[in-house]
Amino acid sequence: MVVTGKADKRAKLLFVLPNFAGGGAERVALTLLAEIDRQRFAPHLAVLSASGPLRGLVANDVQLHELGEGRLRRALPKLIGLVRHLNPSVVFATQGYLNMALLAARPLLPRETRLALRESNTPSQSLPNRRYARLMAWAYRLLYPRTDLLFCQHRLTEREMRDRFGVPADKIVSLPNPVPLENLRAAAARPRRDAGPGLRFVAAGRLHRQKGFDRLIGSFPALPADCRLTVYGEGPDRAVLEAQISALALQDRVTLAGFSDTLPAALAGADACVIPSRWEGLPNVALEALACGTPVIATPESGGIAELAEAAPEAVTLAGFSENEPTSFIAAMQGCSARQEIGLRSSLLPAAYDATAVRNRFENALLTLVSDARPLHKNVSLGYKRRP
Predict the structure, then answer these.
(1) pLDDT category of residue 386 using cuts at 50, 70 and 90
(2) What are the φ and ψ backbone dihedral angles of 229, each rounded to 5 degrees?
(3) Are 49 and 17 in contact (CB under 8 A)?
(4) Whether pLDDT at 379 is above 50
(5) Residue 290: phi, psi to the nearest 5?
(6) For the whole model, what pTM was predicted?
(7) What domains does the chain contain, in order, with CATH numbers?
(8) Mind listing the pLDDT tens digit for each residue in 194-235?
(9) Are strands 296-298 and 41-47 parallel, antiparallel or unpaired?
(10) Dihedral sign of CA atoms 141, 143, 147, 149 in order
(11) In a 10 Å sphere around its CB, with 0-12 CB exposed, 13-18 middle and 19+ buried, how is residue 99 labelled?
C-alpha cells in the first residue's frame, strides 16, 4: 500500500513534457513514469499541453498538471510557479529546449529542488540540423554543466556532454531506453503481415527529415517489386512523402499508416525493422522490434544503435546511406530472409534494455541524488538572485 497524506515520506518527483506526442522522448518518459516505485516516489506530471496520442499511457495515480500553453515562452512562468508550489525533490525533463529553460530558470526554483535531465539526442548529429546551431551549442556549454544529474542513452552522448559541453563526469548516468517487454510482447502476440510473396519491412517515427524516410522511399524502387514497406507515425512531412510515393508510383508498395496500436504486431510480422535516420539518440522502434524477435537495419547515424549492435550483433545490421546511388542500406534489405514462423518469435532484446532493469538504475540514481547532503549550487548565478 502506498503511503499518502501528511505521513507521506516519499520523494516528490515531477516529470515535465511538452505534450503527449508520439515521439520517442515522450514514450521513454511515460514508461519511466509508469514503472517508478510508488513506495519510494510520489509521481507528478506537468505538460504544456495535454494534446497527443500518448495521453492514455498516464496511470491514474499520477497527478497531472496541464499548463494550458502550447508554447514554452508562455508556459514557462506557469511551470516555474508549479515547481515553487509543489516543491518537488526532483524535476525530470527529457527534451533539450525544456532542459535548457529549466536550467536558465533555476535561480527562481526552490533551493531543495534538483534537476535530473535526460539528453535524448546525440548533439554532434542533432545540433548541425537545428536552427541557430552555434547559439544552441553555446547554450549547451553554459547551462548543461549546471544540472544535478544528466541521463544519457549511450556512450557517445556521454562523451560529448563531458568533453564538448563540460558536464562533470560524476553527474552523468548511463540510462538506456526502457522497454516494457511483457506488455509489448502481449500486444504483438498475433503478428500482422501483408499477404503475398516478397519481403515485408516496417519503419516508425515522426514524419520529419531527421528520420530519413524520404531517402528510403527514394531508393525503394531498387528493391524487388513484391517488397512492401509500411511506415507508422505522423509529422510535418506527410504531404511531401505522399507526393514522393505518388511520383515514384509506389502507392501499392509503400504505405504511410499513421499512428496505430497495431505497431507491435506489425513489427512482429515484419522481416526487418528499417531505420534510415539522419540523426538519432536511440530509436525506440529498434528496441521494440528486437523485443518482438525482428531484426533491425539502421544507419550508423542512429545514435546509440552502435552499442545495441555490439550487444545484439546477430540481430542489428548497420548500413550506410547515399542519396545519389544504390546503397549498402538497400543491399542489407535485399539480403533479408522472409520470416517462416507463424507465431511470435523469441525476443532478441538485450536484458539491459528491459524496463525493470532501466527503472532500477533510474530510481537508484534519483535516490542517491535526493539523499546527497552536499550544498545545492550556491555558485549558480545568471544575473539575479535565487528566490527562497
Answers:
(1) very low
(2) -130, 130
(3) no
(4) no
(5) -60, -40
(6) 0.82
(7) 5-178+354-371 (3.40.50.2000), 181-351 (3.40.50.2000)
(8) 989 999 999 999 999 999 999 999 999 999 999 999 999 999
(9) unpaired
(10) negative
(11) buried
